[in-house]
Amino acid sequence: MKPYYLTTAIAYTSETPHIGNVYEIILADAIARFKRLEGYDVFFQTGTDEHGQKIEMRAIEQGLTPQAFVDKTAAEIRGIFDSVNISYDKFIRTTDDYHKLQVQKIFKKLYEQGDI
Questions:
Q1: Number of helical H runs and strand E runs in the chain
Q2: 82-115 pLDDT, tens per residue?
Q3: DSSP-assigned letters across all residues of 93-113
């Protein structure tokens, strides 16, 4: 079986997702499902971007820590994706420990190579 990797833009967690986020994920899901029907070994990834000053400001406005704020918003986003039965294999959050570790490895390598 040939592998097929599909990813989407990751939804920014300063707000509940808008129609553009949901539209994109539904289109990507249609591609993933079609490729599975064609016999591909599909890995479909989506998720949330949970960093930025806007997120910090929104959290402060609501009396939350940034992590508590993104936990709430990411759960809303994932819930919306699940409610329309998106067939993703991985829902990544940029605050996941795994993600942070990988970014640190990449940053270190780029720094050591003189790219940063």
A1: 4, 4
A2: 999 999 999 999 999 999 999 999 999 999 999 9
A3: ETTSHHHHHHHHHHHHHHHHT
Cα-based distances in Å from 85 to 25, 65, 99: 10, 30, 25
CA distance 74 to 93: 8
Each domain of the chain, given as residue ranges in start order, spans 3-112
pLDDT at position 56 over 90: yes
pLDDT (0 to 100) of residue 60: 95
Domain at 3-112, CATH class: alpha beta
Model-wide pTM > 0.90: no
Tell me how far apart the alpha carbons of residues 27 and 21 are, in angstroms, rounded to a whole number. Answer: 10
- Helices 66-83 and 53-61 pack at an angle, to 10 degrees, of 100
Query: From CA 58, how far away is CA 70, in angstroms rounded?
Result: 10
More confident residue, 17 or 99: 99
Separation CA 8–CA 27 (nearest Å): 10
